[in-house]
Specification:
This protein is 39% helix and 23% strand. The chain is α/β, with parallel strands linked by helices and 260 residues long.
Amino acid sequence: MTEYLLSRQEAPDLERARLELLAEFHDPLTVAQLDAIGVGEGWRCLDVGAGAGAVTRMLAERIGRGGSVLAIDLDTTLLEELAGDRVEVRRQDLLADPLAAGGFDLVHARLLLMHLPSRVLALRRLIDAARPGGWVAAIDPDFTTVAVSPSSPAWERTWSAFWDVLIAGGWDPAYGSRLCGEMRAAGLVEVHADYAAASEPGGSLGARLLSLSIERLRERLIGFGVEGDEIDEARRGLEDPARTFSSQTTCVARGRRPSG
Protein backbone atom coordinates (compact mmCIF):
# COMPACT_ATOMS: atom_id res chain seq x y z
CA MET A 1 0.00 0.00 0.00
CA THR A 2 1.37 3.40 -1.00
CA GLU A 3 2.18 5.60 2.04
CA TYR A 4 0.59 9.03 2.23
CA LEU A 5 2.31 11.67 4.36
CA LEU A 6 -0.95 13.43 5.22
CA SER A 7 -2.90 10.41 6.40
CA ARG A 8 -6.20 11.44 7.99
CA GLN A 9 -5.73 9.00 10.87
CA GLU A 10 -2.92 11.12 12.32
CA ALA A 11 -4.95 14.33 12.76
CA PRO A 12 -8.49 13.87 11.47
CA ASP A 13 -9.92 17.27 12.46
CA LEU A 14 -6.94 19.24 11.18
CA GLU A 15 -6.84 17.23 7.97
CA ARG A 16 -10.57 17.74 7.37
CA ALA A 17 -10.05 21.51 7.75
CA ARG A 18 -7.11 21.39 5.34
CA LEU A 19 -9.13 19.40 2.80
CA GLU A 20 -11.93 21.95 2.99
CA LEU A 21 -9.47 24.76 2.18
CA LEU A 22 -7.94 22.62 -0.55
CA ALA A 23 -11.34 22.13 -2.17
CA GLU A 24 -12.17 25.84 -1.89
CA PHE A 25 -8.88 26.67 -3.61
CA HIS A 26 -9.01 24.08 -6.40
CA ASP A 27 -12.73 23.65 -7.13
CA PRO A 28 -12.94 26.65 -9.50
CA LEU A 29 -10.00 25.24 -11.48
CA THR A 30 -11.71 21.86 -11.70
CA VAL A 31 -15.03 23.37 -12.80
CA ALA A 32 -13.26 25.13 -15.67
CA GLN A 33 -11.42 21.92 -16.54
CA LEU A 34 -14.59 19.81 -16.67
CA ASP A 35 -16.36 22.51 -18.67
CA ALA A 36 -13.55 22.54 -21.24
CA ILE A 37 -13.73 18.75 -21.59
CA GLY A 38 -17.52 18.81 -21.83
CA VAL A 39 -18.30 16.29 -19.10
CA GLY A 40 -22.05 15.72 -19.09
CA GLU A 41 -25.05 13.44 -19.12
CA GLY A 42 -24.32 9.72 -19.27
CA TRP A 43 -20.53 9.89 -18.82
CA ARG A 44 -18.69 7.10 -17.04
CA CYS A 45 -16.11 8.73 -14.76
CA LEU A 46 -13.26 7.53 -12.55
CA ASP A 47 -12.08 9.83 -9.75
CA VAL A 48 -8.69 8.59 -8.51
CA GLY A 49 -7.44 9.77 -5.12
CA ALA A 50 -10.90 11.17 -4.48
CA GLY A 51 -10.07 12.42 -0.96
CA ALA A 52 -13.05 14.12 0.66
CA GLY A 53 -15.15 13.76 -2.49
CA ALA A 54 -15.36 17.34 -3.78
CA VAL A 55 -14.78 16.32 -7.40
CA THR A 56 -16.84 13.14 -7.04
CA ARG A 57 -19.80 15.34 -6.09
CA MET A 58 -19.24 17.59 -9.11
CA LEU A 59 -19.10 14.62 -11.44
CA ALA A 60 -22.21 12.99 -9.96
CA GLU A 61 -24.17 16.19 -10.60
CA ARG A 62 -22.97 16.44 -14.20
CA ILE A 63 -23.45 12.85 -15.37
CA GLY A 64 -27.13 12.52 -14.40
CA ARG A 65 -28.98 9.26 -13.88
CA GLY A 66 -27.50 7.62 -16.97
CA GLY A 67 -23.89 8.09 -15.90
CA SER A 68 -21.66 6.67 -13.19
CA VAL A 69 -18.73 7.70 -11.01
CA LEU A 70 -16.22 5.31 -9.44
CA ALA A 71 -14.35 7.08 -6.60
CA ILE A 72 -11.21 5.35 -5.32
CA ASP A 73 -8.76 6.24 -2.56
CA LEU A 74 -6.51 4.60 0.01
CA ASP A 75 -8.83 5.99 2.71
CA THR A 76 -12.53 6.14 1.84
CA THR A 77 -13.73 7.43 5.23
CA LEU A 78 -14.93 10.75 3.82
CA LEU A 79 -16.32 9.18 0.64
CA GLU A 80 -18.66 6.54 2.02
CA GLU A 81 -21.60 8.93 2.40
CA LEU A 82 -21.50 9.61 -1.35
CA ALA A 83 -22.10 5.99 -2.37
CA GLY A 84 -25.39 5.51 -4.16
CA ASP A 85 -27.00 4.76 -7.50
CA ARG A 86 -24.57 7.02 -9.40
CA VAL A 87 -21.46 6.73 -7.23
CA GLU A 88 -19.46 3.65 -6.29
CA VAL A 89 -16.79 4.06 -3.61
CA ARG A 90 -13.88 1.65 -3.51
CA ARG A 91 -10.75 1.45 -1.32
CA GLN A 92 -8.01 0.94 -3.86
CA ASP A 93 -4.33 1.65 -4.53
CA LEU A 94 -3.74 2.94 -8.06
CA LEU A 95 -0.25 1.44 -8.21
CA ALA A 96 -1.11 -1.98 -6.79
CA ASP A 97 -4.73 -2.86 -7.53
CA PRO A 98 -6.26 -3.62 -10.95
CA LEU A 99 -8.49 -1.15 -12.77
CA ALA A 100 -10.95 -1.94 -15.54
CA ALA A 101 -9.11 -1.21 -18.80
CA GLY A 102 -10.71 1.19 -21.24
CA GLY A 103 -13.87 1.58 -19.20
CA PHE A 104 -14.19 5.33 -18.62
CA ASP A 105 -15.04 8.44 -20.60
CA LEU A 106 -13.11 10.52 -18.05
CA VAL A 107 -10.29 9.55 -15.70
CA HIS A 108 -9.65 12.31 -13.18
CA ALA A 109 -6.79 12.77 -10.70
CA ARG A 110 -6.47 16.00 -8.70
CA LEU A 111 -3.34 16.52 -6.58
CA LEU A 112 -2.47 12.84 -6.85
CA LEU A 113 0.47 12.25 -9.18
CA MET A 114 2.91 14.46 -7.27
CA HIS A 115 2.43 12.22 -4.23
CA LEU A 116 3.23 8.90 -5.88
CA PRO A 117 6.68 7.27 -6.00
CA SER A 118 6.15 5.97 -9.55
CA ARG A 119 4.50 8.78 -11.49
CA VAL A 120 5.22 7.34 -14.94
CA LEU A 121 3.53 4.06 -14.01
CA ALA A 122 0.62 5.89 -12.35
CA LEU A 123 -0.01 8.04 -15.43
CA ARG A 124 0.08 4.98 -17.67
CA ARG A 125 -2.51 3.28 -15.48
CA LEU A 126 -4.75 6.33 -15.62
CA ILE A 127 -4.51 6.35 -19.41
CA ASP A 128 -5.19 2.62 -19.66
CA ALA A 129 -8.40 3.11 -17.67
CA ALA A 130 -9.75 5.62 -20.20
CA ARG A 131 -11.63 4.35 -23.23
CA PRO A 132 -10.14 5.08 -26.68
CA GLY A 133 -11.04 8.72 -27.28
CA GLY A 134 -11.67 9.26 -23.56
CA TRP A 135 -10.14 12.01 -21.45
CA VAL A 136 -7.53 12.07 -18.69
CA ALA A 137 -7.63 15.18 -16.48
CA ALA A 138 -5.06 16.02 -13.80
CA ILE A 139 -4.10 18.92 -11.57
CA ASP A 140 -0.74 19.19 -9.80
CA PRO A 141 1.28 22.09 -8.32
CA ASP A 142 4.80 23.37 -8.81
CA PHE A 143 6.02 24.70 -5.46
CA THR A 144 9.22 26.26 -6.87
CA THR A 145 7.38 29.57 -7.26
CA VAL A 146 6.39 29.87 -3.59
CA ALA A 147 7.90 32.83 -1.72
CA VAL A 148 7.14 35.09 1.23
CA SER A 149 8.33 38.71 1.14
CA PRO A 150 9.90 40.02 3.21
CA SER A 151 11.38 36.66 4.10
CA SER A 152 12.93 35.53 7.38
CA PRO A 153 15.43 32.89 8.52
CA ALA A 154 12.59 30.94 10.19
CA TRP A 155 10.63 30.87 6.94
CA GLU A 156 13.65 29.83 4.88
CA ARG A 157 14.54 26.98 7.26
CA THR A 158 10.95 25.78 7.50
CA TRP A 159 10.43 25.92 3.72
CA SER A 160 13.69 24.06 3.06
CA ALA A 161 12.71 21.33 5.53
CA PHE A 162 9.20 21.18 4.00
CA TRP A 163 10.78 20.28 0.66
CA ASP A 164 13.05 17.72 2.33
CA VAL A 165 10.09 16.08 4.05
CA LEU A 166 8.10 15.85 0.82
CA ILE A 167 11.01 14.45 -1.18
CA ALA A 168 11.86 11.93 1.54
CA GLY A 169 8.23 10.81 1.40
CA GLY A 170 8.45 10.15 -2.34
CA TRP A 171 6.69 13.33 -3.44
CA ASP A 172 7.81 15.68 -6.22
CA PRO A 173 7.02 19.26 -5.11
CA ALA A 174 7.75 20.56 -8.64
CA TYR A 175 5.72 17.96 -10.54
CA GLY A 176 3.27 20.51 -11.94
CA SER A 177 6.05 21.86 -14.16
CA ARG A 178 6.39 18.42 -15.79
CA LEU A 179 2.79 17.25 -15.90
CA CYS A 180 1.86 18.53 -19.36
CA GLY A 181 5.03 17.17 -20.98
CA GLU A 182 4.63 13.79 -19.33
CA MET A 183 1.04 13.52 -20.55
CA ARG A 184 2.26 14.05 -24.11
CA ALA A 185 5.16 11.64 -23.64
CA ALA A 186 2.72 9.00 -22.37
CA GLY A 187 0.83 9.14 -25.66
CA LEU A 188 -2.12 11.42 -24.94
CA VAL A 189 -3.27 13.73 -27.74
CA GLU A 190 -5.00 17.13 -27.68
CA VAL A 191 -3.03 17.86 -24.51
CA HIS A 192 -3.76 21.30 -23.07
CA ALA A 193 -2.70 22.92 -19.81
CA ASP A 194 -3.67 26.11 -18.01
CA TYR A 195 -1.46 27.50 -15.24
CA ALA A 196 -2.73 29.37 -12.18
CA ALA A 197 -0.56 31.43 -9.82
CA ALA A 198 -0.99 34.52 -7.69
CA SER A 199 0.94 37.17 -5.80
CA GLU A 200 -1.22 38.43 -2.94
CA PRO A 201 -1.16 39.48 0.71
CA GLY A 202 -0.44 36.93 3.40
CA GLY A 203 -3.57 35.40 4.84
CA SER A 204 -5.04 34.72 1.41
CA LEU A 205 -6.70 31.37 0.75
CA GLY A 206 -3.56 29.89 -0.81
CA ALA A 207 -1.35 31.09 2.03
CA ARG A 208 -3.70 29.67 4.67
CA LEU A 209 -3.82 26.35 2.84
CA LEU A 210 -0.02 26.15 2.77
CA SER A 211 0.13 27.15 6.45
CA LEU A 212 -2.17 24.26 7.39
CA SER A 213 -0.12 21.86 5.27
CA ILE A 214 3.00 22.93 7.15
CA GLU A 215 1.21 22.40 10.46
CA ARG A 216 0.12 18.91 9.36
CA LEU A 217 3.79 18.04 8.82
CA ARG A 218 5.02 19.69 12.04
CA GLU A 219 6.44 16.54 13.67
CA ARG A 220 8.20 15.51 10.48
CA LEU A 221 9.64 19.01 10.06
CA ILE A 222 10.97 18.92 13.59
CA GLY A 223 12.53 15.55 12.78
CA PHE A 224 14.35 17.26 9.91
CA GLY A 225 15.87 19.85 12.24
CA VAL A 226 13.40 22.75 12.40
CA GLU A 227 12.43 24.14 15.80
CA GLY A 228 8.77 24.37 16.75
CA ASP A 229 8.97 28.12 17.28
CA GLU A 230 10.45 28.51 13.80
CA ILE A 231 7.47 26.68 12.34
CA ASP A 232 5.15 28.99 14.30
CA GLU A 233 6.98 32.07 13.00
CA ALA A 234 6.90 30.76 9.41
CA ARG A 235 3.14 30.20 9.66
CA ARG A 236 2.61 33.70 11.10
CA GLY A 237 4.50 35.08 8.10
CA LEU A 238 2.23 33.23 5.70
CA GLU A 239 -0.84 34.61 7.43
CA ASP A 240 0.44 38.20 7.84
CA PRO A 241 -1.36 40.57 5.40
CA ALA A 242 1.61 42.95 5.61
CA ARG A 243 3.70 40.39 3.72
CA THR A 244 3.41 39.26 0.11
CA PHE A 245 2.76 35.61 -0.67
CA SER A 246 3.72 34.26 -4.09
CA SER A 247 1.80 31.04 -4.60
CA GLN A 248 2.64 27.74 -6.15
CA THR A 249 1.92 27.46 -9.88
CA THR A 250 -0.92 24.99 -10.43
CA CYS A 251 -1.02 23.05 -13.69
CA VAL A 252 -4.55 22.18 -14.86
CA ALA A 253 -4.05 19.65 -17.65
CA ARG A 254 -6.15 17.46 -19.88
CA GLY A 255 -5.52 15.09 -22.77
CA ARG A 256 -7.34 12.49 -24.80
CA ARG A 257 -6.43 8.83 -25.25
CA PRO A 258 -5.96 8.18 -28.99
CA SER A 259 -8.95 6.52 -30.66
CA GLY A 260 -6.87 4.25 -32.88
